[in-house]
């Protein structure tokens, strides 16, 4: 049956469809961490709608809140409503104490990219400047400006320059140093380099309207910023009076073990973008939380029809209740610690695994050709990562492949995943790596 749906899709949908090419199943139903396909096969979902379903599929408490709201009303533009008031206040209250009184919320539309676009617009208007600094390997979305801020030149190259004045700097990954330096021999670091360029009259970059960064680059292959890099970027941006936007679209809402990942880095951003898991059940919503000192844009400065999804607001409030009552953040930290033990052990058993990295329940297993080393061309490595994904699917596990040239197997399980289910995930990966390596 799955094959039939895939064939129907191929004859009626765009060639740009992506997931069905690597995960060729038709989904019939889903509950908790489980997806059932049209043929009755059951999979553990360690992709969760690209990091959206923080409580798995259809959490009953959240689903009930959505049903209740559905009986009340659905669409509210940006007018105040009870569901929205509750959502806004409860979500602002999730910010750390120093920030929660300073920050305001803006509803940007349904998607993460909408939030990124709004963040850039806000900072440009507030500073009167136009350039933006982003980081190599970053991903911020696929609308024009969000894509322009994305480090992946493959996609961008095909549509030409989308937003002028974007400058890319190396992101804090010593293992991925663009100059090939090693931490033990590097006399400076990427953040110092950023500061020198921004303050050098010959540096070529005028003072930007914003610096935008992910605390853990997700699509870029699960690359966490180092603590020093994050702190230094914060210091530099503060010193030069540049708003720092932290894109928490993927890392936010508990994914890394704290509500926002920046909390673990001890920094305070000026603007936070959140989206994916805000509703906890996959209903689209995207917000900015930003320092009220930046709140100088005019009424209507960033509009959009779909900014008043009451179902998402009701779900987002119910999800916060569940997260507190079911101690979900503690679970993320415990299950994250479990993966931090199991995945290096997995790496020890499989030659194709070059590195494992992660924070909370966001993990990447980076592959490299064991006979050619990490700097070899990636075609065979990409093929191997896809083979692992395919073998895992056949054994009942849905996972993502991403990162540079799609060489990183990525895990984004639900945040309420159990110890046993994590064991199941790693067990399947173990067999998938064995099978894929032939
Ligand atoms: N920012 C980050 C960090 C993301 O991971 C993503 C989506 N993967 C986006 C922005 C874009 O979100 P959306 O696909 O909802 O536009």
TrEMBL record:
Pathway: Amine and polyamine biosynthesis; ectoine biosynthesis; L-ectoine from L-aspartate 4-semialdehyde: step 1/3. It is an enzyme of class 2 (transferase). The keyword Transferase applies. Its cofactor is pyridoxal 5'-phosphate. Keywords: Aminotransferase, Pyridoxal phosphate, Transferase. PROSITE patterns: AA_TRANSFER_CLASS_3. It holds the Pfam family Aminotran_3. Belongs to the class-III pyridoxal-phosphate-dependent aminotransferase family. This is Diaminobutyrate--2-oxoglutarate transaminase.
